[in-house]
Amino acid sequence: MLAAIAAGRRGARVLLAEREGTLGGISTGVLDTFYGFWTPGINPERVVDGIPGEIVRELTALGAAFERPNTYGAGTGVTYNPEILRALYDRLCAEAGVTVLLHAAVVDVAAADRRIGELLLTSGSSLLSVAPSQLVDATGDAVIAHLAGARSEGWSDIPNPQSLTVTFTMSPVDHEKLSNVSREELLTLLADAIESGSYQLPRKDGSLHVTTVPGGEFVHMTRVSGWDPRDPAALSAAEAEGRRQAIEYARFLRDLVAGFESAQISWLARRIGVRESRRVSGRYWLTRDDVLAGRRFPDAVVRAGAPIEDHGSGQSTRWDFLDEGRYYEIPFRSLLPRDLDGVAVAGRCLSASHDAHASARNMAQCMAMGQAAGTAAALAADRGVDVGDLDAGELQRELAAAGALVGDGI
């Protein structure tokens, strides 16, 4: 979606296919907070701006977002109203001249000689054929690249892939009473509840935070492990398990945590949150060492400073931090499948190792990757070349002119 806006603003003819009935994916269907705009730590440094920053400023001006210092490790977050964000995305796409097809899912692709010649979509009872000159795969699961034959590392290729999560909000919550419950007390209550056998809670940690709606509290606690999100039967089972867990965590909060006594679930994620499914094998493979060393690249198009945040199976989360104030860069080559021409990816399906991905998958970075991929696609269409043949310096200059924070090599 960010890719479509960026390309549309450059005058490209853009078709945006969205399988849901609303734009935004995870940002409007699962979450209410953007992380990754700043490095964590005592002196946060902003690492993402451009169209993602514009979206935050628009939401803030509408009274639908605020900055929230984060105590769980990821740094300052931007908490927003996802319902307002849905409408904002509609408007930004319309203003950029993007043709939007909601309820349009990818069925198949026709690919030969490293290129996708045709994309087959389904919407309602119709099959739609599209022949793009340049294509951005922002499906999260790299569906288009995978169907075209691009190699990838998937959920089943690693020993402990990241779990899935169903989020929800509860209201009305007495925030004055809840403010007297420390995080340590909350975790003790969780551990005691699990130990008692009275609650079936797979995770001993998690987070709560206020929402943009008075009396609302966002709950991020469920942990659904063992289901491969690339498999439709497994994903369906995971959805049901996530909702079951949400009901159980809500019961725990209502029974045992001060401030939740009268609260009920007021919003449940429209779909389960998938952290990790398929990561393409690109022209550069971002690594754990790249992240923790704060590595820079001559073709950098995104900055990132979030820690490696690994929600594997089990009851806790693994965090590995960069040194205070440091950030690393995501190179344009990590958005380019090495097996395909005319295709860029954006979001959590980037070319990265399990650990590097556990940092780079933050929402601000995914949005910035979208702006980079969309700008590149539009530039390539203008130049009559494949997106992977662009001069990185030209792409960086275009992104910088649009307010993005990119590599130092421009």
Instruction: State Rg.
Output: 21 Å
**Largest sheet, described in full?**
4 strands, antiparallel
What class, by secondary structure content? Answer: alpha+beta
The oligomeric status of these chains comes to single chain
CATH level 3 topology of the largest domain: FAD/NAD(P)-binding domain
Q: What is the total number of structural domains?
A: 2
Q: What is the CATH superfamily of the largest domain? A: FAD/NAD(P)-binding domain
Coarse shape: globular
Segments where pLDDT lies below 50 for 5+ residues? none
SS element count, helices? 12
What proportion of the residues form beta strands (DSSP E)? 15-25%
In short:
With 410 residues, the protein is an alpha+beta fold. It has twelve helices and 22 strands.
Give a written overview of the molecule:
The chain starts with a helix and ends in a 9-residue tail after the last helix. It is built from 12 helices and 22 strands. β6 and β7 form a beta hairpin. It is globular. It folds into 2 domains: 283 residues, FAD/NAD(P)-binding domain (3-Layer(bba) Sandwich), CATH 3.50.50; 111 residues, no CATH class. The model has no long low-confidence stretch (mean pLDDT 94). α1 runs parallel beside α11. With 410 residues, it is an alpha+beta fold.
